[in-house]
Structures are given as structure tokens and as C-alpha cells.
TrEMBL record:
It is an enzyme of class 2 (transferase). This is Glycosyltransferase family 92 protein. Keywords: Glycosyltransferase, Membrane, Transferase, Transmembrane, Transmembrane helix. It is found in: Membrane. Belongs to the glycosyltransferase 92 family. Its EC number is 2.4.1.-. The lineage of its organism: Eukaryota, Metazoa, Chordata, Craniata, Vertebrata. SUPFAM superfamilies: Nucleotide-diphospho-sugar transferases (SSF53448). It is a single-pass membrane protein. One of its GO terms (molecular function) is glycosyltransferase activity. The keyword Glycosyltransferase applies. GO terms for cellular component: cytoplasm; membrane.
């Protein structure tokens, strides 16, 4: 009896220990399920094992959701803080209150609906629609390749557009400098200045130019086709006026328009994330702007020096200076160029002086991996520091209509920095013109 009792006691102890393990395991499972439910309100098997997300693949650069208040550009994987999918989009700042990311996890095909944080960028300038980050925490033990966006955690995924999540795979930098131009609109036809800017970018070290194109002239289309075939230009179609009433101004004028300057800020943010893993630097400027180094021959040597002097800096801001197209010199009056529409920048080397109590706007060269959100003239959120580059190091050559149109010629500052590149620039522009326009 005594031995039998000992065995019984041992058995009871073993049962208690085993039961405790089961209870703990059950509690851990419940805790995990609670966490899952908190971030992913719905988790159901929706497709056979091995099948990726269903739904219709998104075909356009701008995709309207059924609410017609949310427009999706593209999702990007972002693990700089936590494992999230960051969807670049445009939303109505008041009407869009709730969105969900529907992830499909290979190989078992389970669908997880994760509630999104909707972060409308602060630089909306009064317009009802603005650039937005739609950010969703990704499921544990899942590397989703596609995502759908919906107003509810429930529904039929077959009816939702499906977006590929870019930047999922780490890449080595394929280029040093990418220029982002947004947006080309208004039947753009400044052909000569565009070619000159493109050739200057290449002389300065640019390997890729990304253009968000709304529309341009037929002649400009021919030039873009040349640069695309050459491998320099990537065109992102940008039919934003098919979805929203766009303004060609940057601030809201109470005129019934929905978004400013053809959604420029959204395009710039998309361009940063699009090039985050393939370009060492991203340059945010317009087609009539050129960052001219004064102490260095090109951007690579300039940026190497600036980074050495400013460790930890991810955003470099350059002052914009106007070279009015109304004031010209007789130099570089090349007869064959006179038949090409647009401005000949080599003939405009007088810049407007600084105005008292007026800050010159800036454009940027950034390390895209250190930027979270950008506006046009400054970065809104970033991991790295920002630095204003002194004018004796570099300035932005901006040839356009004057801002100080009443100034006499003698009040302008003659600045021939651009002419340092004239031999290469003239030769390269001629090559492009003879293959496209002339």
C-alpha cells in the first residue's frame, strides 16, 4: 500500500506539472491570439495552400478605391522601425477614417486583415485631398508579397485590387544619383531646356531620371522616348486629373479644386520609396532646375565632401536662385537650336539678387533610406539630420520667368558657373537633337 501510495503521489505530481504546462501553453496561445486579433481583426483561410493573394492585379499608377475618397499609388515594405507595409496614397483628409490592409501569406494562403494607421502629410496647403501614408503592421511569420486595401476587415478579396509590395527584397545600389521630376503637365513643350537639363544631370553624375508624366507635347514625347530607350529615363504615368480636380498652384484658392500642383507631393514621396533600395542618393528638383556645384566638378565629389563634413546627415538642402529667361546674352546663339521650342539656358547667366526678408526656397539631395515623409522644399519626417549647403559650395540654377521683373539688368548678378560645362553640354545636346528633333 505504501509503495502504491507513493506511486499515486508521484502520478498526481506528474499530472499537476503536465496540467500546468498545458494551461501555460493554452494561456500563451490565447495571448498570441489576442495580439493577432488586435492587429489583424480577421484571420481566415481564403485560398488553397501555395496560392498567393487573389484579387485583380492593379494595372495603373493611380488606383481609386470604391469609396472614391482613397487613391492608392504603391505599397512598400519598410522595416526601419518595425515590420510594416507603407502604402503611398492620396486621401480626403476628413472623409477617410478607417482602412485595412488585407495581406495574403504564402505558402498556406491565409488572409490577414490589419487595421491601418492613416497618416495624412502635414503639408496639404489647405486642399481637401493630401498625400498620405497608409501604414499596416505585417503578420508574424509572414512575408506577404501583395496587399489589398479595403474599408472593412471583411468582404470578398476577389473584388479588391491587388498591389505588389515593393522593396521586399534587399538590393545593392544600381545607381548613385536618381533625379525625381514631378509632375510634367500642361502640355509641357520646353524641349530645349529639358534636353539641356538632362544632359547636365548626366555630366554631373546622374544615371536615372524618374518623371511622373501627366501630359506633354508630341515633340516632347519623342524626346522622352529617346531617353527611355537610352535607359536614362523612367516614366511613371500620372493621370491624376482623371480622378481629382487638380490645381496648377501649390496653395488652395477656394476654387473647388481637390489637390495642389497635380499631386506633386505624393509623386515625390512615391519616388523616394521607389528608389530607396536602388539609388544611393535621390535628387528632388524640377526639370528647369540644376544643382550646380561651385567647388567640385560633379555631384559625387561634392556629396562625398558634404557627407564627410556632416556625418549622420541624410538631407542636404540647396538654395534656389532665379536666372530670368527674359535677360539673355548673345553668347551660345546656336542657329540650329533656334528652331527647337524652349529656353537656351546657356544664354541666361544673370541671376536675381537676394531679397531682404525673403528666404530662397530650397531643393534637396537626400539619402532615401533616412527619409520617412517629404514635402517640396523640406523633409517632414526623417531619421537623419538636415543641413543647408552654403551658396559657395553649390546653388540651384533655376532658369524661368523672373520673380523680380522690374529690376534693371545692371542690378542682376552675372554668374557664368554654367559655362564651365559648355563644351560637353553643347556636344551632348547636339547629339540628342539630331537623333530626335532636328
Amino acid at each position: 500500500m505504501l509503495r502504491c501510495g507513493k506511486k499515486h503521489i508521484c502520478a498526481v505530481v506528474a499530472c499537476i506539472i503536465f496540467g500546468s504546462i498545458l494551461i501555460c501553453s493554452w494561456k500563451d496561445l490565447q495571448l498570441q491570439n489576442n495580439i493577432t486579433r488586435k492587429f489583424f481583426p480577421q484571420a481566415t483561410t481564403a485560398s488553397p495552400a501555395g496560392q498567393l493573394c487573389r484579387g485583380k492585379p492593379a494595372q495603373n499608377a493611380i488606383t481609386a478605391l470604391k469609396d472614391n475618397r482613397t487613391f492608392i499609388i504603391s505599397p512598400y515594405f519598410d522595416d526601419r522601425e518595425s515590420k510594416v507595409t507603407r502604402v503611398i496614397g492620396i486621401v480626403h483628409h476628413k472623409d477617410v477614417k478607417q482602412l485595412y490592409c488585407w495581406f495574403c501569406c504564402p505558402p498556406d494562403g491565409k488572409i490577414y486583415a490589419s487595421k491601418a494607421k492613416i497618416d495624412v502629410h502635414s503639408d496639404r496647403f489647405g486642399f481637401p485631398y493630401g498625400a498620405a501614408d497608409i501604414v499596416c503592421l505585417e503578420p508574424e511569420n509572414c512575408d506577404p508579397t501583395h496587399v489589398s486595401i479595403h474599408q472593412s476587415p471583411r468582404g470578398n478579396i476577389d473584388q479588391l485590387p491587388r498591389f505588389e509590395i515593393k522593396n521586399r527584397k534587399a538590393e545593392t545600389f544600381s545607381v548613385d544619383f536618381t533625379v525625381c521630376i514631378s509632375a510634367m503637365f500642361g502640355n509641357y513643350n520646353n524641349v530645349l531646356q529639358f534636353i539641356q537639363s538632362m544632359e547636365m544631370y548626366k555630366i554631373l553624375g546622374v544615371q536615372k531620371v524618374v518623371i511622373y508624366k501627366n501630359n506633354c507635347s508630341h515633340l516632347m514625347e519623342e524626346v522622352l522616348k529617346f531617353y527611355v530607350e537610352e535607359g536614362t529615363v523612367e516614366i511613371i504615368p500620372w493621370p491624376i486629373n482623371s480622378h481629382l480636380k487638380v490645381s496648377s498652384k501649390w496653395h488652395f484658392m477656394q476654387d473647388g479644386t481637390h489637390i495642389g500642383y497635380y499631386g506633386q507631393i505624393t509623386a515625390l514621396n512615391d519616388c523616394i520609396y521607389r528608389n530607396m533600395q536602388r539609388s544611393k542618393f535621390v535628387v528632388l528638383n524640377d526639370a528647369d532646375e540644376i544643382i550646380l556645384p561651385l567647388k567640385h566638378p560633379d555631384w559625387k565629389s561634392m556629396m562625398s565632401s558634404l557627407q564627410e563634413q556632416n556625418p549622420g546627415t541624410g538631407i542636404f538642402l540647396f538654395e534656389n536662385h532665379i536666372f530670368p529667361e527674359t535677360v539673355s546674352t548673345h553668347m551660345f546663339n546656336i542657329s540650329s537650336w533656334n528652331t527647337v521650342p524652349g529656353v537656351n539656358i546657356l544664354q541666361h547667366v544673370h541671376r536675381e539678387p537676394d531679397r531682404k526678408d525673403v528666404f530662397n526656397p530650397k531643393k534637396m539631395i537626400i539619402d532615401p533610406r533616412k527619409v520617412i515623409q517629404t514635402s517640396v522644399h523640406s523633409v517632414l519626417r526623417a531619421y537623419g539630420n538636415s543641413v543647408n549647403v552654403p551658396m559657395d559650395v553649390a546653388l540651384i540654377y533655376h532658369c524661368r520667368v523672373p520673380l523680380q521683373g522690374n529690376l534693371p539688368r545692371e542690378s542682376l548678378i552675372r554668374d557664368t558657373t554654367l559655362w564651365r560645362y559648355n563644351l560637353s553640354l553643347v556636344m551632348n545636346v547636339n547629339k540628342v537633337l539630331y537623333q530626335t528633333v532636328l
